[in-house]
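Reviewers asked in the last cycle whether our approach scales beyond single polypeptides. To address this, we selected a multi-component target totalling 522 residues and predicted its structure end to end. The input consisted of the following lines:
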Amino acid sequence: MSENSGSTSTNIFVAKLSSYIDLSIEEHQVIEELTQNSMAFDEGQDIIFESEKNSSAYLLQSGWAIRYKIVPDGGRQIISYLLPGDIFGFRESLFELSDDSVQALTPVIVHCIPAENIAEICDSHTNLSLAFTWARAREQAILTEHIVRLGRRNAYERLGHLLLELLHRLQLVEKAGNSDYFLPLTQEVLADTLGLSIVHVNRTLRKLRNDLMIELDPKTRRLRILDVDALSEATGYDQSFLDQNEKPSRSPQDAIGFEEK
Amino acid sequence: MSENSGSTSTNIFVAKLSSYIDLSIEEHQVIEELTQNSMAFDEGQDIIFESEKNSSAYLLQSGWAIRYKIVPDGGRQIISYLLPGDIFGFRESLFELSDDSVQALTPVIVHCIPAENIAEICDSHTNLSLAFTWARAREQAILTEHIVRLGRRNAYERLGHLLLELLHRLQLVEKAGNSDYFLPLTQEVLADTLGLSIVHVNRTLRKLRNDLMIELDPKTRRLRILDVDALSEATGYDQSFLDQNEKPSRSPQDAIGFEEK
DNA sequence: TATCAAGGGTAACCTATGTAAATGCGCTGT
DNA sequence: ACAGCGCATTTACATAGGTTACCCTTGATA
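The resulting structure, written as structure tokens, was:
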């Protein structure tokens, strides 16, 4: 872990938020300031270990990370993926609830917003508060989908469904092409995500390849989904749970989104 | 669904919150007011159907409900249980994310807090805002545990683990004895929660009975866990994810819970 | 009293997925 | 060039859990 100064002019968070909220110039600046200090982690390093009673928020600038939990028998369950542009960690919970950890899957750069600053930022900038709210709601939607995936789908559907979700999420931050992206996951990671064994992930991946659903180059780790519609159909994938349609106006009432049906 | 006037003097929400937050007298009163209007639902009725773009919050006064999702092939996955004292629905998401539904499992009484009132209440009453924050964090911890349960445990462990979680959550609101409670769930509901078939739930339940882990009277629907420690051990249950230890002071800084290690 | 539906229980059989073990390939370090 | 490691791949075999089908009890309704 080292200190850097991040100075990208086209900020990924500004870009992401702007797609659904009209940010004021001042809010732009706040975000730019927040992302000045960055921390780098190497592949395999823990960013947060068992929650550490740390309720700071983190902005993931680049790289992939996972939130995971270890079970008594030593197994690992991956709870969720953190991709560029994601906010995480802001438990805001004063209590020690879940004790999960966050680990870098690739080299990663994050910006930390100390817990004591969060309340202040939210109070003074409606739209940034909205951003947190939205991030939480989105995270919950993703967790919900993961539960459905684990509870009600077979291996083939689980894998295809996950690959589609990742494609879709990466596209939202311009990290994926029309149907392909860089997938830095070993089969072991996939297994720990989907509640399967490594061997069965391998089998299922082969089947997806044989069915001409995907192409995966083990060298470059580039994944291509050959027929998004067919795979969506086959795995029951419905991308609407990630959609974020309308740009709401900036007035608080409308922001709650109650009036208009 | 009918309108009633709820007028319990010992309010379940006051009781629940008081156990970990020092409420002001004024806050007591706000809660009492919020819980004046109540709505009743019968077993099987939908309380929220596919999110309905409704971001109101609901307080569950009495009864059991489930949050669930239907998959394309007609199957149902139950995402979470809502028990007396729980807050739900406050998506606060202006976007249509997850489209899950909430349904009453028993006759249920809820109090509704319209979306347009939530912001106002949170602004003027720090501790009530805290209550929402806490409810969200808790819900996420429960979802996380559910993911681990589905991904990394076998049928026996899943069932035992769930029964322990319910015991624990009910105890927190005085709805369970030391080791027994009223369990209004059919085997079908259990199956849809745990990603199992009905038949296998039946088999597994029998096994738990044979192992003298539980007693379940199908007439009264009373469940007794005969040896909580043994069952916890056998199913990898660790109740800490639900614990809510210290009463934080009421000042905002402390509320974030950052300073004290 | 007869009927019906919902839920629990059980048995026979089938299959998706797990486990164990061995092979190969492509890195990295020496 | 070689050893060694991480990861993907494949085969053979074992088993947890799914499917189908049927019966029983109970309680509601006619």
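The radius of gyration of chain A is 19 Å. We regard this as preliminary and will revisit it once experimental data from Aim 1 are available.
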